[in-house]
């Protein structure tokens, strides 16, 4: 079996914490390293330069847009939480054969809670009958 290949959607703990803070910002609002560091420093002992390095790494992975903001940079996520989660799921499934993908999906659904199953049913129903589709 081949080892999983690295993916830009696989995030470390600190990368995920930074992304969560960026996603929590109001739509379209970019945050500076200082703002993210301030938000994270309340819950963990972390250096400003560590946050700066992580945010730069997220920009190199194309997960955030990095924009010059005076002498500093500001950052905003390139994708929503949902889009990044979907990418992670697709990347994981791509590591398996067609048969194994089906088996993995069945195992996932078997372990899913009622809310997840309901969300999957709604998504599948929308794929079968997208809103705004006109019957001919």
If you had to describe this structure to a student in words, what would you say it looks like?
Helix content is 57%, strand content 10%. The protein has helices at 13-24, 33-41, 48-60, 81-94, 98-111, 114-128; strands spanning 31-32, 64-69, 72-77. The protein has a three-stranded antiparallel sheet with strand order 1-3-2. A hairpin with a 2-residue loop joins β2 (64-69) and β3.
Short overview:
With 136 residues, the protein is mainly α.
What tags apply to this protein structure?
elongated; 57% helix; 136 residues; mainly alpha
Q: Summarize the helix and strand pattern as letters.
A: HEHHEEHHH
Largest sheet: 3 strands, antiparallel
What proportion strand?
Answer: 5-15%
Number of distinct helices: 6
Give the low-pLDDT segments.
1-6
Mean pLDDT over the residues:
86
| Count of extended strands | 3
Q: In whole angstroms, how far apart are the ends?
A: 47 Å
Q: What structural class do you assign from the helix and strand content?
A: mainly alpha
Q: Give the overall shape, derived from the CA principal axes.
A: elongated
């Amino acid at each position: 079996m081949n080892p999983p290949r690295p993916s830009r959607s696989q995030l470390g703990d600190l990368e995920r914490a930074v992304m969560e803070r960026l996603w929590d910002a109001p739509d379209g609002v970019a945050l500076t390293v200082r703002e993210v560091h301030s938000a994270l420093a309340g819950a963990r002992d972390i250096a400003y330069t560590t946050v700066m390095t992580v945010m730069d790494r997220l920009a190199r992975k194309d997960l955030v847009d990095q924009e010059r903001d005076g002498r500093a940079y500001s950052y905003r996520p390139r994708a929503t939480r949902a889009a990044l989660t979907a990418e992670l799921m697709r990347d994981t499934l791509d590591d398996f054969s067609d048969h194994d993908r089906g088996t993995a999906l069945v195992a996932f659904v078997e372990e899913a809670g009622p809310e997840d199953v309901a969300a999957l049913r709604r998504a599948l129903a929308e794929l079968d009958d997208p809103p705004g589709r006109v019957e001919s």
